[in-house]
Amino acid sequence: MKNVITISRSFGSGGREIAKRLADELNFAYYDRELIDAISDETGLSKDYIEQFSEGHISRAYPIHIAQTFLMPVVMPSDSIQIAQTNIIREAGNSGNCIIVGRRADYILRELKPFKVFIFSSDMDERIKRCYKKVPEDRVKSPKEMAKEIQKIDKNRAKYYNYYTDQDWGVMKNYNLCIDTSVIDIKKAVELIISALNI
Amino acid sequence: MKNVITISRSFGSGGREIAKRLADELNFAYYDRELIDAISDETGLSKDYIEQFSEGHISRAYPIHIAQTFLMPVVMPSDSIQIAQTNIIREAGNSGNCIIVGRRADYILRELKPFKVFIFSSDMDERIKRCYKKVPEDRVKSPKEMAKEIQKIDKNRAKYYNYYTDQDWGVMKNYNLCIDTSVIDIKKAVELIISALNI
Asked: d(Cα B18, Cα B7) in Å, to the nearest integer?
């Protein structure tokens, strides 16, 4: 069996929940936000700051005016985060028996041939519903605004992935199993992944 | 469970074999080349001729010089084939308990909400190997030429699909389950699809 699983996911698809349940069932190490803690330990940068650059917001990391680059250190903070993140993901991959969510782990670990899953949902209404359950009350928006926000987050994830790899995010051929949670529920998705792994 | 399954597939991925095995295991009606026979019965056109237009070769169906259109009948042969094919696929879908391979059946039957599978292989060498097993001796080519041919066939399938639908062929969000047969073997793929159907 493959003992390194990467879970890429579109926002509001339930991908994180699937990854967590999978880690529980397989008794595998689980890396998602845990990576942010580890990067913070390694770089000394705050978790809030790391979160901004860990998997998106490329544009914030780079200056609009080229003149500004003269004021930038040679290694920009976001680069330090990427380097630390890459090292931690490599270490996790080499230790095996782990599940890593997002953060281009599928690409970073490509030589280990991880089992690469993409979780998405073809039903925007369901994605919105799923987000409503998780968004703090003071950040609740209208369904239309929420849909826009979801698309923006996916766009950022794609931008991040496409910037730091030579592949395209969410393109079928870059994954081994792609599951639509609008038709296949979360419990079943976990079952399918475990079955595909031949455990 | 969903009793209409559409199998889209990239060439040399083993998609047809998966569809056939699935039909056998579920005891479902199976439509692939069978559609060509049915179209031939309905239109009176030869099977060889239908095969050209059933799922590709859009360019052959339309005149290069606009002047030629004056010489064309109002309903062009390829249109007749598309119409007959659509009718037969609709009939099959409405009867239920069936598996239809390719031919934009996922799109034609979208209101029935079929279970939409895409079978692909991320390993070109394996696709070439699979094709070698099936190509008649007098049509065997070098692996490089074979790879080109495989890409051309996929391109034609995409062209056909994109022309006759308002969707894009092979784009993850248009399917419910996408399986990479370079990592998940054919037997396992059949198992996963049956499991996903909740039978």
From this structure: 9
